[in-house]
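[Discussion] Sanity-checking designs against the backbone

I'm trying to build intuition for which residues belong where. Below is a structure token string of 323 positions. I'd appreciate it if someone posts a full sequence so I can compare it with mine line by line.
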């Protein structure tokens, strides 16, 4: 079923309103904000690799407030148990029944802070919920509901006492990016308003959670020409054949790539995906899914550099049929 231009115009207007609202808490980071919203509306999860104090918690809170959702925060530590994330069943002596007490994972937006500090067992419990959208305790499934998004963070400067996420589990994140430090003008504005300890507290809802679900369904209907689908497959094959890489893009990654491109196109007010959508999303969608050979790392190659090489080598389709 094709999408009407009026529907896409509404999508773009709502998307832009959400971006502007979140920027009340996160100044000067419009592109990252757009990526996070694209991730949410593509029903995926985001991995942020950043140094402390760049506003990751503020971003998660502002996003939850903007969509009239709930916010949960889990501080990952080596002694964190899977039940601390998912919840636990406890016997109630008065009712003489076991009752499920949900963990912090049951929220619209969940911030999993420093996920690589938890044990692999706890990491696996979180990633299972991300994939399935539900928690099963004592054989009883408990849905997290929709929308549901995990924003996990990693600290790139401290590796002592951490457990690196396996590459197969990194693939479960739709995108990876970083906030980074604000530019000069934004930094001055933040410092000038130092009396405000929590900028996200001023963020008001723009849409309801039900509207977010509707936007995700609309994005799914954005047209992708067969030639562009072939372009994504050619890019995936190029990553698998590149001599500097020992792990290329999986089919799950290619599917994620197309989902993100649909949402991004809708956010730009288009009823169909264009090659520029594929290119602009290449780094956040691919960077954590590609693994360099050891020799390539020693020679100074980077994943971002390899992605740029592949984008330059694989030509996009010149013509696209109309949707």
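Best answer:
Here's mine. Compare freely.
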């Amino acid at each position: 079923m094709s999408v009407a231009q009026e529907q896409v115009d509404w999508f773009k207007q709502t998307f832009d309103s959400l971006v502007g609202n979140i920027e009340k808490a996160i100044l000067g980071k419009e592109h990252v904000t757009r990526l996070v919203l694209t991730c949410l509306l593509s029903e995926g999860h985001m991995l942020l690799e950043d140094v402390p104090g760049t506003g990751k918690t503020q971003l998660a809170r502002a996003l939850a407030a903007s969509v009239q959702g709930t916010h949960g925060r889990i501080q990952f530590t080596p002694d964190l148990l899977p039940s601390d994330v998912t919840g636990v069943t406890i016997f109630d002596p008065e009712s003489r029944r076991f009752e499920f007490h949900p963990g912090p994972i049951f929220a619209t937006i969940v911030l999993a802070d420093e996920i690589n500090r938890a044990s692999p067992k706890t990491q696996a419990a979180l990633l299972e919920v991300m994939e399935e959208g539900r928690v099963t305790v004592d054989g009883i499934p408990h849905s997290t509901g929709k929308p549901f998004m995990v924003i996990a963070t990693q600290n790139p400067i401290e590796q002592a006492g951490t457990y690196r996420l396996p590459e197969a589990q990194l693939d479960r994140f739709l995108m990876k990016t970083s906030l980074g430090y604000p530019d000069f003008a934004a930094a001055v504005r933040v410092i000038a308003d130092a009396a405000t300890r929590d900028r996200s507290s001023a963020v008001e809802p723009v849409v309801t959670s039900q509207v977010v679900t509707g936007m995700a369904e609309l994005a799914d209907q954005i047209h992708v020409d067969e030639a562009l689908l072939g372009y994504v497959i050619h890019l995936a094959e190029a990553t698998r054949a590149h001599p500097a890489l020992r792990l290329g893009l999986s089919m799950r990654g290619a599917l994620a790539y197309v989902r993100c491109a649909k949402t991004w196109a809708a956010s730009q007010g288009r009823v169909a995906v264009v090659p520029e959508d594929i290119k602009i999303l290449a780094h956040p969608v691919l960077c954590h899914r590609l693994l360099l050979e050891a020799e390539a790392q020693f020679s100074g190659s980077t994943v971002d550099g390899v992605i740029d090489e592949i984008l330059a080598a694989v030509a996009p389709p010149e013509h696209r049929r109309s949707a």
